Amino acid sequence: MNRLFVLLCSIMLLTSCSSNDDGDPPTVSTTFKFTHHWDGALIRDYNFGPIQYTNANGDVIGFERFRYLISDIVFTKANGEQIELDVYNLVDLTNEVNMEYTPETQIPPGNYTNVSFTFGLDNEDNAQNHLDLNSASFNVPDNLGGGYHYMQFDGKFINSNMQEQGFNYHAIRAVDNPGANPTFPQDTFFTVNLGAINITNDVEIEVQMNIAEWFKSPNLWDLNVYYQMLMPNSTAQIMMYENGQDAFSLGEVFQ
Fold first, then answer.
1. Interatomic CA distance for residues 149 and 232, integer angstroms
2. Residues 6+ apart with CB under 8 A from 85
3. C-alpha span between 47 and 193 (Å, rounded)
4. Cys staple from 65: which of 34, 60, 154, 177, with CB 3.0 to 4.6 Å?
């Protein structure tokens, strides 16, 4: 009787293992962790307020609000196949909200030659109605083309008269002819390529942003010239688009 019991248990164990082998291929979860620094100096919510950072032009600034959108995460395999996640996340450094983001969709483990995302929203996503972004007051006025901000960066700086001056570095879709029939000279969302990542298990991917880069190159940013009313200024929007290309980089990968 004991031998029969052992035999039955062995058969059940083998059957259980076999059913797992016949199931779906394994998948893993991906978490993106967003960190921020100013030329290497870590920035957290408690760094907001004091005017303490010097940009490449020599302007001394302080932060009051900093939040931005990332969307459309893409994992690219060596054979060119892509796994595209139609998602978005509003990173709010001011209140340290959504600093980590885990898409619901899991992906197969593997060696990905590139992991990328969009800064802002592409035109198709920007034309949709996103209730959570509406609630967050992230909208762009209709006379500027509607849709949503890509980034809101507000603070103060010491102007050329040695006085505190507010600035609103807001990135949106570049627009001309504000009003009932605005036109769009060029797209100002852009793709951020983090590079190759070999994913073997559930993974945490650190995305670093050097906020100082928004003022550096290729356009040396003078806050005495470009400090407010930048949303209807297509020249300023294109400059932001160009400066943002080097703001992001891949940090640590944990798995």
1. 12
2. 72, 73, 74, 103, 105
3. 28
4. 154
HEC string of the chain equals CHHHHHHHHHHHHHHHHHHHHCCCCCCECEEEEEEEEECCEECCHHHCCCCCEECCCCCEEEEEEEEEEEEEEEEEECCCCEEEEEEEEEEECCCCECCEECCCCCECCEEEEEEEEEECCCHHHHCCCCHHHHHCCCECCHHHCCCECCEEEEEEEECCCCCEEEEEEEECCCCECCCCCCECCCCCCEEEEEEEEEECCCEEEEEEEEHHHHHCCCCCCCCCCCCCCCCCCHHHHHHHHHHHHHCEEEEEEEC
Nearest in space to 249 (alpha carbons), one of 36, 29, 41: 36
The predicted pLDDT at position 24 comes to 75
**Could you read off the pLDDT of 78-133 as tens digits, one per residue?**
999 999 999 999 999 999 999 999 999 999 999 999 999 999 999 999 999 999 99
